Structures are given as C-alpha cells and as structure tokens.
Amino acid sequence: MAILIVMVSGGRLELQAKIWARVNGIVTTEDGKPIEGARVVLVSPDGEKMETTVDSKGNWRLLNVRPGSWSIGFLAKGFEPKNYNIELSAIRDNPPVKVTLARTPESPFITADALYGEHKYQEALQEYQRILDCQPQLVEAYAKIGLCYYRLDDLDKALAFFQKALEKTAATPDILINLAAIHLQKGNLEQGVQYIKQLDEKSITDPSLFYNIGVLFFKEGHADLAIEYLQKCLALNASSLEAHYQLGLAYLNNGNKEEARKTFQKVIELKPESEKATFAKKILEEIK
C-alpha cells in the first residue's frame, strides 16, 4: 500500500510515496472456534507498538504498518499466550497469520481455594489434603495446608507444613513471612527474624510485603522492628496512608512522641477526609 505525501521544498511541490505493509490473520481455539476479543500486539525492535482485537469470526487486520521485523503477540483471557517474530513486506502480500491458542490449564485447587476464600478453613484443609494425597507432586499444597492450620490456630501443624513447603519449593516471600509470623506468635523472636532476614530485599518491589512485615512485628509487640520495615515500605511508596498510620502507632508505642506527631500529621495531609485522618487527629489531641 502506498500513500502520497506532499512536501514543499524551495517553493516546489514534491510528491513522495510512503509504502506501508498490511497484515491479517485468524485466532482460534485448538478445536477451531474463534477467540473473539483476543488482543493482537505488534512491537518493533525500536519499541513502536500497534494493537488490534479479534472479531467474532476470529479475524483481525492491521493496516499502515511499517515494513520490517516485528514481534507479534496473541493474548486472551483463559488461554496461554503466544509470541512470534515476523518480517512484513510492503511490496508483496503478507500471508495470513493463523494462530491457535491452548486453554490455560485449570488449577486443581479451584474448589479448595474457594472454600478458603469463604473462611471455611476446615473444609478447605480437607480438600487440599485430598489433592496432595492424590497428586504428591503438587508441592504448593503444603503452604496452602499450612495456611489452613494457621487460620485454625494450630500453630505446630502450620509450622510443620510451612517448613515442608520450604523444603519442597523455592523460599518465596510468602512462605518466609508466614514462618516468621508463626514463630513470632509462639514467642520465638530470634527464629522469626531469621526467616525475615532470608528475604532478598533488593529484589522486593512490592511495598505491601514490607508493610505486612511491619504490621506483623507491631502486632507481636516489637515496635523497633515494625518501624524499620514500615519505613522500608514508605521508601517504595511514600504516599501509603496505611503505612504512615501504622508507623505513627509504632512510634507512639515506642515512646517517640515527636516522630509520632510528624507521622500522624502526614496521614492528615495525605487524606484529610479519611477515617485514618480522623483517628490521627484524635491521637494528636491526646499527645499534645
């Protein structure tokens, strides 16, 4: 496809032809059904991006595409994504890109996870245990069972299953934090801190992890450690209202009224009409 571009040079009109490529294709399931609404994303080596969606018949088309190399990706909810590298020509027709997407395997934990989400921890525990008995290779079940025991206040069994999860799988932040939580609740501060220290903090980009650790330490009466991790949370997300509020409580609990005042004032500045700001104002009145 060629487009004429009019340019003025030295008072003369010049015509230049810009030649574009076009590409189309079809996206279907493995049994040939169209995947309506699937996204088709083209990305060039220099970062240029073009995108379209698949119609009800599974077809898609993009016009006025710069010829050359592109990475093309196909994404649809409930399906495994696919990516290809293609070379598009502007002087000849590009063959249709025909793609089949496989459905994402259904998690064996759907029923158990739903029970856990409904706070039916005993029923969830039984379902997770049944799955693990039938499919012992599903080692992620150990942590899920550990969570159920933790919610049921059986700390010894929860600890045993989280330790088993640590042996069977990678030391994920969730497993380490849960092990720390159990030890702290059992009064084992040193062991709890040891698990927290195993976290690769340099690789943590989610401030909520530091927030949860800070709240955990505060809940178990360790204000100094709570302050340390809440500050780490705020280093990643300085506008976190919850982290500022919890930090204020930790400072207050630690006897540092001056820092508590500054922190509660920050809560009020961030969201003056929020419930946390209302609480912060009441606390400030009490510690004047």
In short:
The chain is of the alpha+beta class and 288 residues long. It has eleven helices and nine strands.
3D architecture notes:
47% of the residues lie in helices and 22% in strands. It is built from eleven helices and nine strands. The strands form three sheets. A four-stranded antiparallel beta sheet has the order 5-4-7-8, with no helix packed on it. A three-stranded mixed beta sheet has the order 6-3-9, with no helix packed on it. Helix 4 (155-168) packs antiparallel against helix 5. The chain is extended. 27% of the residues are buried. The model is unreliable at 1-6 (pLDDT under 50).
Instruction: Find the CATH topology of the largest domain.
Output: Immunoglobulin-like
Helix content: 40-55%
CATH homologous superfamily assignment of the largest domain: Immunoglobulins
- Principal-axes shape call: extended
**CATH-level-2 architecture of the largest domain:** Sandwich
Question: What is the string of SSEs from the N terminus onward?
Answer: EEEEEEEEEHHHHHHHHHHH
